[in-house]
Amino acid sequence: MSLQTTITIPFVRSVGIVFFICGVFGNILNTIIFYTSQTNSPSTFLLFTSSLFSLIYLIDGLLTRTLAVGFNIDPTRTNLIWCKTRTYLGQASSLISLTCTCYAWCDQFFLSSSKQKYRRLSELKRTKIAILCIILFWFIYNIPFYVLAQHVKNGNETFLCNVFANYEFNKYFSFVHQPIIAALIPVIFIIIIGILVYNNLSLLRIHHRREKAQRNLTSMIRYQTISIIIQTIPYGFFSMYLTLTSYQSKSLYQTEIESVILNIVSIFYYFSHSFSSFIYYISSSSYRQQAKYLCLKMNCFRVNRIVAIKPSNNT
Fold first, then answer.
1. Among 301, 289, 264, which residue's Cα sits nearest to residue 213?
2. What is the distance between the alpha carbons of residues 277 and 283, in angstroms, rounded to a whole number?
């Protein structure tokens, strides 16, 4: 039996489904909590936007990958428009979600600064304009993914959806886009801003000026950032390795090993998008309280609805 049958398919089916269910439930919970939050802070709105696009990314990317690899259900092979749309939307939504998380760190830096001119930059109206610019920028940037995605013959009169048939674009994706734009730049940026925020918070502790709400937001963003770093680096560098070795002669076994690894790192690339709500729940007491209140409210609504439709015995 091939490694595809014994490892890849069972892994994608089991892990992919778990990631998807947890991600859909978690991001819906995130969007409700952040949208209804009474703090009305820029960081909260950024996390709301990040969760919304994570949800889109999971449906567009993880669900379709799980169906294609795990169950051999892949509409992109027969529908060119969906082939282009899936690739384009997946890349854009992933980068929008990541950028909003990075900008949330910037907002924490503004809020924690001892200088008034920086604190004034943490403004909800300004943040909403910035988010619109972020969304517009990434949708324009990723247009080549839509244009270059095409059907490539796979033998037996079947096709594969492939955006990397163009050699130059394949090199750009493997050496610039994935390892640098989608991995190194966000990680380096977050580390630098994180250090600055930590220094600011150290001063705030001394002067006892740090609010509980800000502590919770900082903790949530910090743990979410760690998960982003863990998921991003392996996929970025393995994509680079595949491109560097693409023209080398490889045995069938080595090709299968690389395929297994690619599918594993591809699924784990959705980790922070799938488990952000669990990360927030662990790292923030205010998020836990809001999540419990929301679940209690939904349960009470369900109980009241059952009581309301229950037929009366006095008939």
1. 289
2. 10
Measured between alpha carbons, how far is 172 from 118 in angstroms, rounded to an integer?
36
Phi and psi, residue 160, nearest 5°: -120, 145
Q: Are 70 and 19 a contacting pair, CB within 8 Å?
A: no
- What's the sign of the alpha-carbon dihedral 55, 56, 59, 64? negative
User: Cα angle at 286 between 285 and 287, to 5 degrees?
Assistant: 90
Please give the C-alpha separations between residue 23 and each of 42, 59, 76, 135, 274, in angstroms, as whole numbers: 23, 9, 23, 21, 4
Over residues 67-88, the pLDDT tens digits come to: 999 999 999 988 999 999 999 9
User: Smallest Cα–Cα separation from 95: which of 127, 128, 143?
Assistant: 143
d(CA 23, CA 58): 7
Phi and psi for 245 in degrees, rounded to 5?
-105, 10
Phi, psi of 153 (to 5 degrees): -65, 135
What is the residue type of 236? G
Helix, strand, coil percentages for the chain (3-state, nearest 5) = 80, 5, 15
Q: Tokens 């493997």 identify what position?
A: 174
Q: How do residues 31-76 score in pLDDT, each as one tens digit? A: 999 988 766 789 899 999 999 999 999 999 999 999 999 999 999 9
**Quick one: how far is CA 171 from the chain centroid?**
24
User: Which one, of 135, 68, 66, lies nearest residue 98 by Cα?
Assistant: 135
